[in-house]
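ESCALATION

Customer reports they have been waiting on this structure for their group meeting. Please prioritize. Original submission:
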Amino acid sequence: MNLQGGTGTGTRVGAQTLTGPEPALKFERLAVSTLDDSAHANTFYIHSTFRITNVGSEPVRNLTFLPTNTDEDSDPATPTTSTPTVGTTPFKNLRYYDGSDASEQAPYVQLGQVRKLDTQTYTSPTVVDDDTATLYRQNLQAPGFQTSVPTGLTAQVGSAGWVHIGTLAPGESTILQLGAGIRTFGFTSKPYNLDVVLAVAQDDASTEKTPLAAPVFEYDRTTSTVSAWTGGAGSAQVRQQFLSSVDPNSYVAATASISSAGQLDLRLASERELVGLNNSYPGNARDYNREGCTTTVTSSDPRIRTLIIDMLGITGKGDSRIIIPARRDSLKFSEGTAFVESGLLIYADRPGTLNGTYSCDLDGGWSPFQITLENVQLVKGWNKLQDVRTDTVLTTPEGTLPLESHEISNGPFPEEWLYFR
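Update from on-call: job pushed to the front of the queue and completed.
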């Protein structure tokens, strides 16, 4: 697939699917735009847009486009019918504006999410990910995936790429948006044309969002009374981003709207939207190995990957209000201790049972807390769990601090949400 300039004559790696026949796809390049962020990030961004049409006789589902490195095979007698990509990259046909070879820059091209200029949130324009474009995911798992290649070449399919959500019927088209960044530091010119070789797969992951509806009330800490929602109509978007090497992907885990009468409509992300998830279960030492923290949590399936929602930030009437799933009739306060039966939403990519305790103290710079999971059984998909929360005020040499204690179980999930004011 050609990213920028020229006409793009690179040979595409033949597509072979994971769960069905090889998709017959037609690619049409519609537009190319660029964004120069050399002054801030030493990077020149490319946004290339294609129309993809299913020209076959069978529907194709959840297409994934995986950048692929090709090399000549080890048999010198085998004729090579296509030029391999440059080095260990998925790129070929790199050219400067004058048509000269630009292969030296192949290692400095980084594929990823399409980028855009954000002029709304910041005092000065800032380049950010464009979440409305085709999603780019890392940590994609395709065990046993094979792709056909031209004679004389071998292929190494990457574990990152762009994912399309949904089904394309025969004759139906969709838009694919590819993003790339070219390093500008140290070079006097940048490539005008480059092709990226893509292998194409599809899968059967669910594209259905999980709905959740509930009323929202307000709790007044001063008077200890519950009243109707006064925040007006609003909305929320739950973003989950893991900046460590464990999971570099960014997810919109849920979207929500709330009516002026306080009725919450929550839509939890589908299995396909959460593809590439690599953050393991709560309390796993791999992800929770922090100073001042200890864990005994284990999972019946250590491969399980999860994502957690325990609150929503509702934006409306010019402010933002944090709401949590909680039973208003469970609120109890006594001598510096607060008790509430709240809820926890956990997405799991496979079934598993969690047991153990995860706790942190002041040594790691955290407010003290303890989370206990006792025989918590997770199914594949979204799980609605009970979180019995106790907040106790501790007196320490450093002053008074709250101790959060959470007991997670398969108990009932609250049927209402609360805003504490």
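Sent to customer with the following note: Residues 4-21 have pLDDT under 50 and may be disordered.
Escalation resolved.
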